[in-house]
Amino acid sequence: MPASFDPSALDDLLTRIARDAPRHFGEGNVASYIPALAEVVPDQFGIAVCDVAGRVYRAGAADTPFSIQSISKLLNLIIAIQHLDEADIWQRVGREPSGQAFNSIVQLEVERGIPRNPFINAGALLVTDLLVSRIMSIHWVMRELARRLAGNPALAFDTRVASSEMAHKARNAALAYLMKAYGNLHGEVDEVLDVYFHGCALSMSCVDVARAFAFLANRGVHPDDGSVIVTPQQNRQLNALLLTCGLYDAAGDFAWRVGLPGKSGVGGGIVAIVPGQMSLCVWSPRLDSYGNSVAGLRALETLVEGLGVAPL
Ligand code: DON
Description:
The protein is built from 14 helices and eight strands. It is α+β, with helices and mostly antiparallel strands. It folds into two domains: 166 residues, DD-peptidase/beta-lactamase superfamily (Beta-lactamase); 130 residues, Beta-lactamase. The protein has a five-stranded antiparallel β-sheet with strand order 2-1-8-7-6, with helices on both faces. Strands 3-5-4 form a three-stranded antiparallel β-sheet. A hairpin with a 4-residue loop joins strand 1 and strand 2. Helix 6 packs across helix 9. The two termini are 14 Å apart. The site of 6-diazenyl-5-OXO-L-norleucine has 13 residues, from loops.
């Protein structure tokens, strides 16, 4: 956003996008493989922007909490980068797009238990394994980082969602056991799954998510208090990974349509970063066949076009 950008123009743009979002209601389906998510009212829409000065703009149901799901994979990778030796991380998980569905198991066997990247389920489970083995009270660390980044001390896990995922854990357990069979995942599978599912079950609103990840637009520095969350180099690397791997086998299409680093979740949230300018978060629960929010994607296209941002 140019420094001269008129805040009221951004407010108007968000209001227009939220007003038009219902055109896409009815397209796609809520995630039903996690029963607790299938109960979410499908036709809802929220949008929020946080600029690098920490100013927040919002429209629609921007303050309604939703299950962040795979957006937690970004949070967990940030914790890993903050606390662990990076060589340990990248020995055990790759940095290449997978071209496969987020929960695919096929490639994992072909590639002998080394997941392609930290944003597919296998990679996120592997990062979680690293966190579980090195960090005491990891649930607490995850929740506190989310609270601190979002500036919202009330953020909490939706334990119903976490339990629902644990009760339907078969596919993630299969991924974890396959990595364990190859000697890449070291911990107890159920313990790793429990931490991973709790991260997915963090409840955050669009405003929370936009605020939490605004530092990625600001060279790793939190806009509110100037604290360094990651170094400028780590920040660039995180954005690169988001651009290439953040939307799984739809990452290429997302780069084409939106052209920003981004991360989606099956709760219907998508966060995107405009480097040097702002973070964006959209939420609408109905998903396309790749597990990405239909109305959210449309909204991001319109937002990027309306803002005239073209960092690539
Ligand atoms: O493990 C799962 O399948 C879910 N808890 C998270 C998947 C997800 O959000 C994929 N995102 N688009």
